[in-house]
Design brief:
Length: 79
């Protein structure tokens, strides 16, 4: 039986080998979001779920991306 990804957004910070960081979102539970984002980035990069509140404006913006449960999306370019 398939596991439910949930219906809320999780925010994940990714760190590349050169220490640049990116912010990703996943339409998944936090523990699943981490795995999904790590699968989308190059091997060796690290990631952590950020415990940050999502504002109503951010929620609307994320919903406009039309992500499906289990989808991930990079919000920021490397910094």
């Amino acid at each position: 039986m398939a596991e439910s990804f949930g219906s809320s957004f999780s925010v994940v910070q990714v760190t590349a080998d050169d220490t640049t960081t990116q912010i990703w979102i996943a339409l998944a539970k936090p523990s699943q979001a981490l795995t999904l984002v790590l699968a989308a980035v190059p091997e060796g990069w690290t990631a952590e779920v950020l415990d940050v509140p999502i504002t109503a404006e951010q929620q609307r913006m994320f919903e406009e991306l039309n992500l499906q449960p289990g989808d991930v999306y990079r919000l920021t370019k490397p910094t």
